[in-house]
Design a protein that fits this description.
Blueprint: E1 27-34, H1 40-50, H2 71-76, E2 84-89, E3 92-98, H3 106-115, E4 118-124, H4 131-142, E5 147-152, H5 161-171, E6 176-178, E7 180-183, E8 191-194, E9 199-204, E10 211-215, H6 222-237, H7 241-248, H8 255-267, E11 272-276, H9 285-295, E12 305-309, E13 312-319, E14 328-337, E15 340-349, E16 357-360, E17 365-368, E18 371-376, E19 379-382, E20 391-395, E21 405-407, E22 414-415, E23 425-431, H10 437-450, E24 455-458, E25 465-469, H11 472-486, E26 490-492, E27 496-497, E28 500-502, E29 507-517, E30 520-532, E31 538-542, H12 551-564, E32 578-586, H13 595-612, E33 616-629, H14 630-641, E34 646-653, E35 656-664, H15 671-678, E36 684-694
Parallel strand pairs: 1-3, 1-4, 4-5, 5-11, 6-11, 31-32
Antiparallel strand pairs: 2-3, 7-8, 8-9, 9-10, 12-13, 12-22, 14-15, 14-21, 15-20, 16-17, 18-19, 18-20, 23-25, 23-26, 23-27, 24-25, 28-33, 29-30, 30-32, 33-35, 33-36, 34-35
The protein binds guanosine-5'-diphosphate and magnesium ion.
Magnesium ion is lined by residues 40-41, 68, 78-79.
Length: 696
Amino acid sequence: MNRLTTNVGGETSRGVTGMAEPDLSKLRNFGIVAHIDAGKTTLTERILYCTGRRHRIGNVDDGDTVTDWQPEERERGITITAAAVTSLWRRCQLNLIDTPGHVDFTAEVERSLRVLDGAVVVFCGVAGVQAQSESVWRIADRYQVPRFAFINKMDRAGADFRKAVRDMEKRLSIPPVPLQIPAGEASAFSGVIDLIKMRLLTFDWEQEPPVSKESDIPDALKPAAEEARSEMVAKAAECSEDLLELFVNDQPVPEDALRAALRKGTIQRQICPVLCGSALTNRGVEPVVDGIVDLLPSPLDIPPAKGIHPRQQDKAVERPCKASAPVSGLIFKTHTDQHGTLAFFRIYSGKLKPGTRLYNPGRKAAERVNQLWRIYADKREEIEEAGPGEIVGLMGLRASITGDTLCDNAHQILYERIAFSETIMSVSVEPRSSADQAALEEALRQMVMDDPTLETKLDEETGQTVLSGMGELHLEIVKDRLLREHKLNVRVGQPRVRYRETITRLATAQATFDREIGDRRHKATVQVQVEPIDTLDLKVASDLDRKTIPLELIEAMKESIRVAGGSGPLESYPLLRLKATVTAVEDFDPLLATETALTSAANAAFEKAVEAAGPIMLEPIMRLELRVLSEHVGDVLFDLGGRRAEVKETEVVGEHQRVVAICPLSELFGYATQFRSLTRGRGELTLEPSDYRPKR
Ligand code: GDP
Ligand code: MG
């Protein structure tokens, strides 16, 4: 197989200077993101078909696609797990991470975008920019991911390319620049006009393999094509001085210079190129694969990976994307089953082989890679070596989970963890037969391990296991998986809101720990201050002088406060929007002030301070985006009025109305069902967590 990471210098050249670097310019780590049902899975299938990894086209509607590989996904026709798939195109290695569009699974989108270099955003040619495409777009903004758009479903009745582009212009952060226009729309859709070559591309998709044909642009479409091309050239010229020079002097624009400018503009996120087609009928897919190669960045085009030094957290560290650099990378996903855990790892620098020893600086744990895999959806291919920029599967890790950094022990670096949303809903779970309790706990342990937005906790009062997640669908899928994968039939309680707690004012408290344990006295007095902050987390800091108190002890106190913050004083929900600072350790005595004494005193001082700071409950507030037929708007708004919802925006979009509202989660249980009945199944609803507010 044509592998890019083959060590050209041979086995003996490991670590030797002058070793040939693999050609990373031929690597693309990309993802496909979209609103649910825009056609992401279908496009993925067609891309794989096009690049030759699959001989028969899979269909979402028949339930036999490559990337939707968990049984629930096939049944529900949605993509839950991001599967990694590798293929080759024009001598480039394409590493594709499929990401789900459902908001209950944003964790998957977050972690994929965190490790990707570029993305294809799929929009529906009929619906345009939908709510979830906007939320994934914002995540891509946060991780600075270059992207281009594919306007899909051009074959469907109501498809409108210009409207979709206008929608993008209005609602998204990067200006869209069409590189194609469709030849006809809806039933008249016959192909795409390539504005760079100024040729018509048609696709005979019923042939196997499908063939594409180039021909002259029909006369009727020439004026529109000329106009769109001028706009494209003007926008491209803004991205490249060379091109600008030609453009302002009215010189002919060579294809190469134009492509180079478009690539540069995309990578700098100055423009978002737009392609179009119909994934279902395999028209316009090949240009998308070309676009991945031509427009999206290779690992060399993005800045070196940035992290911090694990023991000096204010020191920034960088790793270049080079095989000769010390090895480092990030685990962005794991898949645990009875055979162990497969960790999906993005290598930022250096090389890996089976047997490589690694260090997990976040958990202070040594790890060893037993096996190295290239992942092809649910199939894996064992490989002997992998290099920077690659996405691989690691077997044999013990302590590491999603979001963790792994690096060379002698050259440590800690990458920023992936930010996951807070869980907002919980249910109790109980096995139908009490003999299954241990099996249930083990199954949940495996699932929690792989899903950072899933938590379990034992309710001390009832003795029940409480499972928390991102919404009703998320928790329902866990229940299905318990039954299907673990043969566990469980009883699930009513869903409940997972509240949070916070404080309303600043307070300081002091606590002393003084006890003989064994033949040793442990004594310390610690002062902690707590104050409200705006961000949705618990921040822990220290004002202590590191010269007097060893850094490990300061870190241990901070950690004990973080743990204490996991359950607040009112109803044991986690504390948020709070900053705690260890302000003083009285008369620090290195003999008496042991770690036990310091952490216990810090913990107690923190709890006292929180009690004194006016603790209150917070409830999760959801953002709703609805699209309903005008005739149903009245009923929908009336119903929302009864749920403490606040309407923020309404807009007429053709025969529909778009409504944006916010509403407490506690009022929204079962809302999806009610919404379906109010709109006779013809509306569209997106719910996502938006904020927390004091609970009334
Ligand atoms: P995903 O949720 O974004 O992964 O979307 P899917 O790929 O599962 O597609 C959702 C539905 O749209 C399926 O019924 C597809 O057959 C259909 N679909 C996808 N692409 C096209 C297209 O280009 N044209 C038409 N008419 N339907 C499409
Ligand atoms: Mg899908």
